[in-house]
Request: fold
Amino acid sequence: MRLLRPMLLIACVLAAWELAARSGLWNPLLFPSLVKIAYELGLFLIQPARLMEAWVSLYRALGGFALAALAGVLLGMLMGRSARVAELLDPLFSGTYAVPKLALFPIFIFVFGIGSLSKVALIFLECLYPIVIVTYHGARDVNRVFLWSAQNMGASRAQILRRVVLPATVPFIFAGYRVALPVAMIVVVITEMISSADGLGYLVIYSLSSLKTDRMLAVVIVISLLGLALDRALVFLRNRLVYWDRLDTYYV
Amino acid sequence: MNFFVKGAWLAALLVAWQLLWMGGLPSYVLSPLQIATDFFTALGSQELYVHAGTSLLRALPGFAIGSALGVALGLAAGVSRGFDETLSPVIFLTYPVPKIVMLPLFMLWFGIGDVSKILIIALACFYPTFINAYYGARVTPTILVWSALNMGAGRWRIFRGVVVPSALPLIFAGLRVSLALSFIVMFATEMINSRSGLGHLIQVAESSLRFDLMYVSLVTIAILGYAGDRLLRAARHRVLRWQEVAE
Reply:
């Protein structure tokens, strides 16, 4: 029942689209009808060659993200728990935070070649920032009372790290992951649009330049659904792992 | 102290890079000294300013439109339940979708000129500002609203005097994210299709193996991004003088 009004909004947008498509005011290339888009979407889902393109994009995005997820948490935890490391690395991360890392892509192409590696490397770099920064803040601001009482009860450093610091930081880590995962999707699509011969981003540009707008929109829908599904999977995983602090599920 | 550490870090990195370069690196890696010389040479010519200006004229209007809309609608959704229940689920549903995929569609609708680029930047900037303004308005302490009501403030007065100030820290956080995003999207659109701007410059430099030009545009975009971030932080510092800003 709560979903009724948003559904209505979406239905209105779709109806307006279909109306624009059928009105004949615009070229059907600009507003392909929903039926044609749905047809292309169906075609996409039954063609193994197309599904392979989706797999290529997914594999790049998840590869870069997974590397950043590992390295970012390690770096962030180190920075959060050691003032010396933080003093060393914090200026580096906060200083280059606002610089668009995408500008490095041409150089990455020279260094890592034009294939998947340069894209994965760029995704890694773009995802690293939010994960490191959020993990750092989380690990630094662990409630001091918990640390003291663990020490009081004779916990070793390793034990404190594993039983106190890590659980306290996990919600932050997942907050960082949730920022980074859409970034991974964005970067994979952009890099595939700029230079690639495979992947979903390439398919979008290719469909556009062959004036197959309906096919292009079908690919756009596939990319959107992938982004959405990945985010949902991450929230599901998070609520499983962080069972003591469930995410506010009002909308998310 | 902090400043000193930063300077020492930067100097150490640059020296290490220079030494590595002298030890022999592939031709696409230039030395810091070389890049600096190229950059200052480029500063003397017209070309760099033209490209940087074109890029900024795309990124900044996009950022302004997108974040103004995002803040306005986010605040509105934060205070009005009917609006919230209609709009917010749609926004949160489409949030993880990479907005750049709409670029080809926008190019069809609005042409391949600046309009489609500005609009796609605005779309990308809309989301972080909307979500932050929305949460900012929702975390307004109820007690403050009650006491304002008690003292006879009207609805508009409460919105302006209580809700907006308590949402401001989060609004600035959202603005910071979308400013960075506007530069990324600007760069992406210019690399994908454009005849001007820094993204175009770097693309041309790459395909003609002009490494000097490539690094010059990289340094320029880095400086612009950094300067924008600094300006925003300065503005935040002024507006939020009453709040201890946690770095």
About this structure: Chain A has two domains: 1-31, 32-241. Residues 54 and 135 of chain A are 30 Å apart (CA to CA). Residues 32-241 of chain A form a domain with the MetI-like fold fold (CATH 1.10.3720.10). Chain A is about 80% helix and 0% strand.
